[in-house]
Design a protein that fits this description.
17% helix, globular, 192 residues, eight-stranded parallel sheet, alpha/beta, 3 helices, single chain
Length: 192
């Protein structure tokens, strides 16, 4: 039986998602508080430190500082599959979500994505870990998703042999730049 690849962002759309099937899971930042993942992706040094103190799975972070941690489970992100001229193409400006999608694509199996909400309905932080350690409070403005949208679109483009299924709530639409033949939008289920 083929185990599927699941990438979990921390958007509120995945708040009630129960995972009952076998997946290779790539998760972002504080997801380790609630779920065992196979690969944890942390662009933030504070999140790496938090994860190191309570987990034994591989923690991936920025190449320019992974050696600062001197920990066997902290590893550098892989190189991007392309060289771009835009600021959002600079590896240092990639976020945890786009890196998680990239690493899942490099894993070589079709990818299911959940928790990549991108937009906030009320222009405030749209993260299930808001108001917790190492996260913004719920009264802060949401992060502009333009870089994430561009970066994930680049992954879709550079991995045309991988099928990506983006799960989200009814009414959520794919960004225009995500319309590739290998990308499908589907409703997020309660059980996956």
């Amino acid at each position: 039986m083929l185990i599927k690849t699941l990438v979990l962002g921390n958007g509120q759309s995945r708040k009630h998602l129960k995972i009952v099937n076998d997946y290779t899971i790539f998760g972002c930042n504080a997801i380790h508080r609630d779920l065992k993942v196979d690969y944890l992706i942390c662009c933030d040094k504070r999140m790496v430190k938090e994860a190191m103190s309570c987990n034994s799975f591989p923690i991936y972070t920025r190449a320019r500082w992974y050696k600062d941690f001197q920990h066997k489970n902290v590893l550098p992100f892989p190189d991007l599959p392309y060289k771009g001229k835009l600021r959002e193409d600079d590896p240092f400006h990639w976020g945890s979500g786009p890196y998680a999608v990239l690493m899942a694509a490099m894993y070589g199996q079709d990818v299911i994505m959940a928790g990549f909400d991108l937009y906030s309905e009320d222009k405030k932080v749209n993260n299930i870990y808001k108001n917790t350690a190492n996260y913004a409070t719920s009264d802060k403005h949401a992060i502009d998703p333009r870089y994430w949208i561009h970066q994930i679109a680049m992954v879709f483009q550079y991995f045309p042999h991988i099928n990506f299924t983006v799960l989200n709530n009814d009414g959520w639409t794919l960004p225009n730049s995500w319309h590739f033949d290998n990308v499908l939008l589907d409703k997020i289920p309660e059980i996956l």
